[in-house]
Specification:
CATH class: Mainly Beta
Radius of gyration: 16 Å
Helix content: 10-25%
Number of helices: 2
Strand content: 25-35%
CATH architecture: Beta Barrel
Order of helices and strands: EEEEHEH
Shape: elongated
């Protein structure tokens, strides 16, 4: 599962029959500071995300369970707000716990 930003749409005039009728979005994965991280991904969207939305994407078998089709990644949520305690994140990243 990852957080990403919808940066575009993808259209396919010919595609696997099992995914006909589903929208395809271009999503840029984001890191913990909401900066682009890694390569863009083409993902299935059946909940109505749009350009510029912050989304939660699942990959692999969880994505395939969202519908019966040849899907590797799927939007499962449109994010309204995210709160990250960067001090806590940085301590955990260094292997320390708060209060150490």
């Amino acid at each position: 599962m990852f957080l990403g930003k919808v940066v575009g749409n993808a259209w396919a005039t010919r595609k696997e029959e099992s995914i006909t009728g589903y929208r395809l979005l271009v999503v840029q994965p984001l890191d913990h500071r909401f900066m682009p991280y890694g390569n863009i991904k083409i993902v299935n969207d059946h909940i109505g995300a749009g350009l510029g939305n912050l989304v939660v994407v699942v990959e692999g078998s969880p994505a395939r369970s969202t519908l019966d089709g040849a899907i590797d990644a799927s939007v499962v949520g449109i994010v309204d707000n995210v709160e990250i305690d960067l001090d806590q994140y940085n301590m955990e990243k260094k292997g320390r716990k708060r209060g150490d």
